[in-house]
Amino acid sequence: MSKISSFRVNLLSKNGLKSKVLFKNIKNNRLSKFIKPSSRVISRQRRQFDNFMKVLIFLSFIIVSIPLVSIIYIVVANGLTQITPYFLTHTMKGVMGGFSPFGGILHALVGTILITLGAMVISIPIGILTAIYLVEYAKGNKLSSIVNTLVDIMSGVPSIVAGLFAYSLFALFFGPTAVFGISGSLALSVLMIPTIIRSTQEMLNLVPNQLREASYGLGVSKFRTIIKVVLPTAFSGIVTGVLLSIARVIGETAPLLLTAGSIDSLNLNLFSGRMMSLPVYIYNEYSQGLAVCTNNIFGADCLSDIRMQRAWSAALVLFIFIIILNLVGTTIKKRILKKRGK
Amino acid sequence: MSKIGIFNWHRLFKTDKFYLLVCASSLFVLIILFAITVFLLFSAMPALESSQTGLLGISWYKSSEANNILDFCLPLVFSTILSSLLALVIALPVSIGVALFITFYAPPKLAAIASWVIDILASIPSIVYGLWGIFVLCPFLNVFTGNLISSPPRVLFTLSIVLAVMIIPIITSIIRDIYTGTPHLDIEAAYGLGATKWEMIRLSVLPYGAQGAMSAAMLGLGRALGETMAVLIILSPGRSYSFNIFGVSSHQTIAGNIAAQFPEANSLGVSLLTVTGLVLFIITFLVNWAAKKIAKSGVANV
Amino acid sequence: MGQRIDVEHLDVFYGKFMAVENVSMTINPNQVTAFIGPSGCGKSTFLRTINRMHEMTDKATVKGSILLEGRNLYSSEIDPVQVRREVGMVFQRPNPFPTMSIRQNVLAGIKLNNKSLTKAQADEIVETSLKGANLFNEVKDRLDSAAIGMSGGQQQRLCIARAIAMKPSVLLMDEPCSALDPISTLAVEDLIYELSSNYTIVIVTHNMQQASRVSQRTAFFNISDVGKPGRLIEMDQTTKIFSNPSNQQTENYISGKFG
Predict the structure, then answer these.
(1) Nearest-CA residue of chain C relative to A227?
(2) A24 and A116 assigned to the same domain
(3) Would you call A253 and B126 a contact, using CB atoms and an 8 Å cutoff?
(4) Which of A192, B53, C173, C221 fits C203 for a cystine, CB–CB 3.0-4.6 Å?
(5) pLDDT tens-digit profile of A235-247?
(6) What is the pLDDT of residues C167-195, one digit of tens each?
């Protein structure tokens, strides 16, 4: 106690009465542990420690930058080798080992787009409608708190478990060989729905209540108010949320490995047969390792590391997709938050 | 008001089809989660009901030398939790550091760059993290570990570093939001007493954000537990309860095991993998639930 | 033309909490009626029950009846959405639709209700409504520009134009000038006075001078204590309320002893 009170006297003489009031704001008077009561100026020791922590905190930023820089470097440096119009417009059909023709990612690109579109068709309506229910109709009632909890649980479902779920659902109806694109879409939508619900909720909450009141006051029904006033106002925000949720699932590998499988040719039908996707393509190429070029009976060009080159190039394509989705999404979102003054 | 139970029947019957629609979609969310549980249980049933001799028909179950399903699952659970906890131990201090950097230390432009770094890290697909781990991190670590451990070091330690990099953005962005909201009065009070910047943070910011940081850490942990591709690529699998994080072929996580065995599995094998998937589901559920609880108690205290 | 409103034994509840107790009053057609009283006395809550707005935003319920030219607004066959088309409302803060132009804002009520208009009809409604709100001359050259680019006072008059475009018989105004500067307030007050020849106007105000300037009749609401329901204390000619009120509470309030 005496320590604290002498400290207080010290401060009073230095900073006047104000500090005495402010002092009470510090919980438990923990400051006395740090600031020696007798110190009139910041001691050398304290300053050194302050600088030390400053260095540590700057260092932490550098630490997280290292993986990012090295990831971007390795993906771009290795990926650029194979990105050609040929690579983007050909499948892996008929490609043998490390021999030319080297094949491409067309089937994986198309597969990723189709599977993601399928997931969007399932999850966007459910996500947005559920968010509308939670924000516009059911604030604080029992069903909404149940649904809110479920959305939390759902957003914690590991992606591999979502894959197992989609697989076992289709296996039950179509047998154990049921590996379809749509099954992958279902797995991805389990991951997408909670993020779409949360982001849409956030955006609907940003719509000022005044606008709803203005509309109701004009004798507009609740349905029309939501469709014509609330949704248009929140539109760009909702689109942002959808974009970000696509960015989140488009790189998912594990669930697609279990559900959509892998194949080396183009499949345009979500409802029949295996379907390649970019992430699975990357893993597939990686896991096959080096090609054997010694026994060159074809007399064609042969690259023993062609599979890794394809993997990196596919990774670069995927990466570009995701970065674009993210940049567009976050830019719009930042603009909206700025406009709403939050 | 004709409110019966949790529905507003009055409104339901009064031809408000849109209300019906949004209500139905909310129920659909409920149904999906219910379906996930039911189908996983359904699919897990054959393995749970199968005898040890039946299970021995699965080649990788046989080679695991497990006595029963529990015996099979537990080493996986152990490795899953060990690798994720280690990742969290690495990630949490760095995340707090970056969050502090963005909110209190960096000049605005650098803070924007740091936020951007976090955003991009969050969006890198796990397969790319896996490739980075095996082609960049492993050789890099090899320089230090040399022949002391295996080369390349496809061990739990390497995996945990990759997992840490993956969860840092999740934890950082949550903590950053909380730190930004530190009451100005607290900050000014500390400065008013002559505290240095770090002392201000130690006194005002860290206590204010403690619960939020815990909750964020839990969410990050939940994410690390379910990670598949990085494990599949980096870890050379094994089964043990070893704390030797540099030991080769001594660990395998639940998710990694599912992805590794699934392509070769027969129907009983898939069923057994589903059992482990359910275990993973339960673990992540508990962790996320804890995160929510902590976050809630934090709100109550503030 | 304005319509007469009779309120009979109206109680308003928020959940189980009674916010307003046993209000009975008659609001004359083609007149301005002002509601005054201290904060929390339930005057705004009561105002919202006159077009059933409270149902959309609050968890409020009502007992008793409100008759608009003899029709009970709370009888089961009345559609609350229809009520709001007949009884328009102007809010505390100007709330034009930010995504719409001035012209679209005036037509918002009609368009949102999905009625189709020919261009000539629409032009006529826009012109008469804006003229009715004393705004036409100020904005006639920029009808297609965004409504949020206008001043606060203009925005509030636009909201009034938007309300009268629905051709209501009653206009409710919930502290319409509280967010405006003195000059804009004057413009809106002038408008309220002019509108009273065609509409029944009910205005809630914190500003007693405003009540005395614009209204013909004034109702004073009060609460006996925090947590107690608000009650109608006295309603009479505005001149009488402000010169010679019959109730002591009213006297205390208007003389500035509390509130």
Answers:
(1) C112
(2) no
(3) yes
(4) C173
(5) 989 999 999 999 9
(6) 899 999 999 998 888 888 998 899 999 89
Q: Which CATH superfamily is domain B52-301 in?
A: MetI-like (1.10.3720.10)
Are residue A34 and residue A67 in the same domain, yes or no? no
Q: Is C93 in contact with A227 (CB distance < 8 Å)?
A: no
Q: What is the pTM of this model?
A: 0.86
Percent of chain B with pLDDT over 70: 92
Whether B281 contacts chain A with CB within 8 A? yes
**Which of the two residues, A153 and A36, has the higher pLDDT score?**
A153
Q: Under an 8 A CB cutoff, do A315 and B267 touch?
A: no
**pLDDT per residue as tens digits for the range B198-219:** 999 998 899 999 999 999 999 9
- The number of domains in chain A is 3
CATH number at residue A113: 1.10.3720.10
Sign of CA dihedral A135, A140, A144, A148: positive
Report the distance separating Cα A205 and Cα A45, nearest Å.
49
Residue A8 has pLDDT above 70, yes or no: no
Residues A164 and A232 in one domain: yes
**Spatial CA neighbour of A229 closest among A239, A218, A240:** A218
DSSP labels for A302-313? Answer: B-TTHHHHHHHH
Please tell me whether residues A168 and A266 are part of one structural domain.
Answer: yes
Identify whether residues A109 and A71 lie together within a single domain.
Answer: no
- Counting as contact any 3 or more CB pairs under 8 A, the partners of B are A
Least CB–CB distance from B193: residue in A22, A71, A142: A22
Length of chain C, in residues: 259
> Please, what is the average pLDDT of chain B?
88
Domain boundaries, position A34: 1-41
- Please tell me if residue B25 touches chain A, with a CB cutoff of 8 Å: yes
pLDDT of residue B294: 86
Interchain CB contact of B40 with A (< 8 Å): yes
Q: What pLDDT digit, counting tens, does each position of B117-174 carry?
A: 898 888 899 999 999 999 999 999 888 877 666 678 889 999 999 999 999 999 999 9
Residue linked to tokens 């990926």? A79
Mean pLDDT (whole number) for B8-19: 59
CA distance A184 to A179: 8
Least confident of A13-22, A150-159, C219-228: A13-22
Long-range contacts at B65-71 (CB < 8 A, ≥ 24 apart)? B69/B272, B69/B275
- C53–A216 CB contact, under 8 Å: yes
User: Average pLDDT for residues A137-164, to the nearest whole number?
Assistant: 89
Least Cα distance to C164 among C88, C52, C111 occurs for C88
DSSP designation for A102: -
Whether residues A209 and A222 fall in one domain: yes
A33 or B209, greater pLDDT: B209
Above 0.95 for ipTM, yes or no?
no
Q: What is the DSSP string of C229-259?
A: PEEEEEEEEHHHHHHS-SSHHHHHHHTTS--
DSSP state of B121: H
Q: List CB contacts (< 8 A) between A70 and chain B.
A: 132, 136
Give mean pLDDT, residues C227-254. 91
Complete domains list, chain C, with CATH: 5-96+169-254 (3.40.50.300)
| Same-domain pairing of A51 and A197 | no
Q: Tell me which residue in B25, B100, B281 faces A133 most closely, judged by beta carbons.
A: B25
